[in-house]
Amino acid sequence: MAAVSTFVFLVILIHRLCHNSAIDVLSPGSSLSAEQSINVLRSRNGRFICGFYNISPNASTFSIWFSNVSERPVVWSANPLHPVYSWGSNVKLNFDGSMVLKDYTGQTVWTNNVSSSIAGQAQLLDTGNLIVKGKGDIILWQSFNSPTDTLLPTQRINVTTKLVSTNRLLFMMNASGVLDSLGQFQGSDSTSFMAADWGRHIIRRLTLDYDGNLRLYSLNDNGTWSVTWMAFPQLCKVYGVNGRNGIFIDQSDWGEGCRPKINITCDEEKVKFVHLPNTNFYGLDLSAQRSVSLNFCKQICLSDYKCNGFAYFQGFCVYYRMLFETNRCS
Ligand SMILES: *[C@@H]1O[C@H](CO)[C@@H](O)[C@H](O)[C@H]1NC(C)=O
Ligand SMILES: *[C@@H]1O[C@H](CO)[C@@H](O)[C@H](O)[C@H]1NC(C)=O
Ligand SMILES: *[C@@H]1O[C@H](CO)[C@@H](O)[C@H](O)[C@H]1NC(C)=O
Ligand SMILES: *[C@@H]1O[C@H](CO)[C@@H](O)[C@H](O)[C@H]1NC(C)=O
Ligand SMILES: *[C@@H]1O[C@H](CO)[C@@H](O)[C@H](O)[C@H]1NC(C)=O
Ligand SMILES: *[C@@H]1O[C@H](CO)[C@@H](O)[C@H](O)[C@H]1NC(C)=O
Ligand SMILES: *[C@@H]1O[C@H](CO)[C@@H](O)[C@H](O)[C@H]1NC(C)=O
């Protein structure tokens, strides 16, 4: 009998130990280390993992990623451009709520900048949001407020947040917006789009990819992703697309945007329109006319010195004043 209860006790203990190695909270004073792959936080639904993600045998980033997903599972990184050595690096939650990532030399690589008199624990939520709680469960810091290249459902983007792709392309909105749990993105301006497989119980991410295109993905049962919406269906290069909500290269700041490579003149002889099939521009300053010919639409654009291009579909003419930040006659 004693042997049996010892066995049961051991089984329970082992179960508890296993369970404790996969928890969703980190208590003040504790840390996660880079060298032990089991030393991670797991969201309660098992969907997300937070810890050190190996980007090469010796380098890792403090990240959040999808569990059970084969392709591109990372959704957030504290130090995407400054990976740490995978041996001897760690991230610690201090009693003041500060989370500090140190590399093996002890040098601080990243911190969440929290300094609170009373801090609680850090928790990886089912949404994929890593939060640090303070007294009365107020949120002192959350990873959702500093996205890298991906937005998850319920994660809000606004004028102060931006998506940064791995090769430093940026996506920003001059408004706030959120992807809901059904797969619809709604901005506080007129920006709105919907997943082709709109509906419940689908795991999604909205990612600014390496090519500068913004894509909405749904997770397949086999752990791969399907694209269910993308900002630019046909363009292979979208750098330089500009306006209120733009994707552009990091070197220029938000106010400046991109500059066209050429100086566009007002000389009609020298102006040529280029046909861009299957292209649309969202949220730009524009005017429109109905029931006009293609040639008339072109003439409206040519005669308006601010016009930088037009869209034409079955008599419907829309002309753009803000394709580029600079006007055509600058
Ligand atoms: C992950 O995969 C394991 C084994 O295939 C499965 O038991 C578990 O339910 C999966 N978790 C999620 C969140 O899909
Ligand atoms: C990783 O680090 C070890 C120890 O410093 C070194 O021997 C090994 O060559 C490194 N591996 C790579 C792929 O850089
Ligand atoms: C913390 O503060 C530093 C210095 O002001 C800043 O560079 C860094 O982006 C901040 N980190 C976060 C997570 O806000
Ligand atoms: C934008 O979001 C950040 C958190 O991500 C918040 O601190 C800030 O107040 C928001 N700004 C606006 C203008 O809503
Ligand atoms: C995974 O599932 C998707 C959708 O069902 C399918 O199109 C794709 O071929 C599958 N991929 C693999 C590697 O099985
Ligand atoms: C952003 O929005 C504000 C207020 O609507 C507007 O004044 C400003 O010109 C916009 N900025 C850009 C770059 O479109
Ligand atoms: C465009 O104009 C600016 C200022 O007049 C000039 O410095 C620049 O070289 C011009 N660029 C091209 C491509 O002609």
UniProtKB/TrEMBL annotation:
GO biological process, one term: response to other organism
Domain Apple: 266-330
Entry's EC annotation: 2.7.11.1
Keyword tags: Membrane, Receptor, Signal, Transmembrane, Transmembrane helix
Source organism (scientific name): Setaria italica
Catalytic activity reported: L-seryl-[protein] + ATP = O-phospho-L-seryl-[protein] + ADP + H(+); L-threonyl-[protein] + ATP = O-phospho-L-threonyl-[protein] + ADP + H(+)
The UniProt record lists the keyword Zinc: no
Protein's name according to its UniProt entry: non-specific serine/threonine protein kinase
InterPro entries: Bulb-type_lectin_dom (IPR001480), Bulb-type_lectin_dom_sf (IPR036426), Pan_app (IPR003609)
Localization terms from the record: Membrane
The UniProt record lists the keyword Ion transport: no
Domain Bulb-type lectin per the UniProt entry, residue ranges: 23-145
GO molecular function: protein serine/threonine kinase activity
Membrane disposition: Single-pass type I membrane protein
Signal peptide annotation: 1-22
Pfam families the UniProt entry points to: B_lectin
Any one annotated GO CC term: membrane
